[in-house]
Amino acid sequence: IFRSLARQIVMQYIVHTRMTDITFERELFDSNNDQLLDDEKLLATQVKEFEAISDQRLDSSYPFVVRIDGVSFRNYTRGFTKPYDQ
């Protein structure tokens, strides 16, 4: 009887402790999630500010060079004239 009673008490303690840990982890996740959302909003704002500053127009009377860099641009520019790729 004593062992089964002790076992019940230990099991209740473990379950209670684990539930407390789960609650704490949930609160920690929620606070970190809010921080991540704030960081994303800050980054989006900074990118928009940079785009507004760097929005420039080219004068059509002058020649210009465009460097395209990316994963799929090779396929995108397949039909373009590439005079320097000889």
UniProtKB/TrEMBL annotation:
Domain tRNAHis guanylyltransferase catalytic: from-to ranges: 46-86
GO annotation terms (biological process): tRNA modification
A GO MF label: tRNA guanylyltransferase activity
Pfam families (alphabetical): Thg1 (PF04446)
InterPro entries according to UniProt: tRNAHis_GuaTrfase_cat, tRNAHis_GuaTrfase_Thg1_sf
Record protein name field: tRNAHis guanylyltransferase catalytic domain-containing protein
Organism: Rotaria socialis
Lineage: Eukaryota, Metazoa, Spiralia, Gnathifera, Rotifera
